[in-house]
Amino acid sequence: MSAPGDATGPWRRGTVVVAAGRPAREPDQPLNVPVTLAAPYVAGGDREYGRYANPNWTAFEDALGELEGGRCLAYASGLAAIAAVLDLVAHGERVVVPRHAYQGSLGQLADLEARGRVQVELVDVTDTAAVVAACEDAALVWMESPTNPALEVVDLPAVIEAAHAAGARVAVDNTFATPLVQRPLELGADIVVHSVTKYLSGHSDIVMGAVVTADDEIGEVLKLRRDSFGAIPGPWEAWLALRGMRTLEVRLERAQANAAEIARRLAERPEVAEVRYPGFGAVVAAVLTDADQADRWTRATSLWVNATSLGGVESTLERRRRWRTESRTIPEGLVRLAVGIEDVEDLWEDLAGALDRTG
Ligand SMILES: *Cc1c(COP(=O)(O)O)cnc(C)c1O
What we know:
This protein is α/β, with parallel strands linked by helices. The protein has two domains: 13-245, Type I PLP-dependent aspartate aminotransferase-like (Major domain) (Aspartate Aminotransferase, domain 2, 3-Layer(aba) Sandwich); 248-358, Alpha-Beta Complex (Aspartate Aminotransferase, domain 1). The chain is built from eleven helices and twelve strands. It has helices at residues 13-19, 55-68, 78-86, 103-114, 128-135, 156-165, 216-229, 235-245, 248-266, 291-299, 344-358, and strands spanning 71-75, 94-98, 119-123, 140-144, 169-173, 191-195, 209-213, 272-276, 283-288, 305-306, 316-319, 334-338. α1 (13-19) packs antiparallel against α2, α2 (55-68) packs parallel to α8 and α3 (78-86) runs parallel beside α4 (103-114). The longest helix is centred in the C-terminal third of the chain and has 19 residues, at 248-266. The chain is globular and about 65 Å long. Pyridoxal-5'-phosphate is lined by residues 77-79, 102, 104, 144, 148, 173, 175-176, 195, 197-198, 207, 209.
């Protein structure tokens, strides 16, 4: 319940990221929920123990839940959130997943399949008819859009409709788009998953995940299992995630503008065979001739950091196939560029200079 003088909505999402998840407005109270480091709480209330509840999770969950339009649960990492959702699939049921989904999601599914827990069907999400056909007999349709790192975009409304017609649930990994660009629950999806590590927290300094659902039953099951399995974030992580999320809209605006410009300029370079940019978001993929050329480029920059991950204020790049676990259908020379919020001219001079020296 909000007290007099408390923030009331509904607001636009650029305001929600700033205003949601605040403590009650009372004299001498801070504007942000302070970090609460607690294992047990004094008995007699709703919290009881640090595996069940923490005020910093709640503040973060309130904010992301409001942004995505559902109940949010925070997890220790994006992959912990994904494991919690895949655990909803009953023994022997079928899961449809993009062949170019995040490698960690594919890894979990391959492991579950190897142990006879689920059946996995990999699909090419650029072929909507094939995805729609695969929904038949599926229990869970797992989508990621855009995909990491192929940057393919899923026709979410078509896939959600087909999945529901077949009685399947739909989960969408919304890490790349963020709720400011795409809100899968509004499109009818049952579950949204985030690696909070990326854009939501935005500063490359924490690992955290989240699930959001508008389905009360799913929300209740997930909460009970998080209580018992314990894949919870620390209070510091939740506090940093919410602090980072306050600037999500301005960071994303700047990073997207930078990414569009970098993609446009890379496409003019003869050393780059192909540039992939879905037209939104801040990740760009550049395909170079081979692994060697790509490796040399990623090691020759001085402003861009050769590092994995994405979604931070600082620009990073890496050749994806340097990971043994990356999908074999991702080109050896594909470099994923996670564009940050630096001055675009400095970003370009660094990238172009490195290409001149190594391309
Ligand atoms: C990074 C990432 C994940 C995994 O999240 P962690 O926080 O690293 O566990 C899941 N999905 C996508 C799309 C990602 O980019």
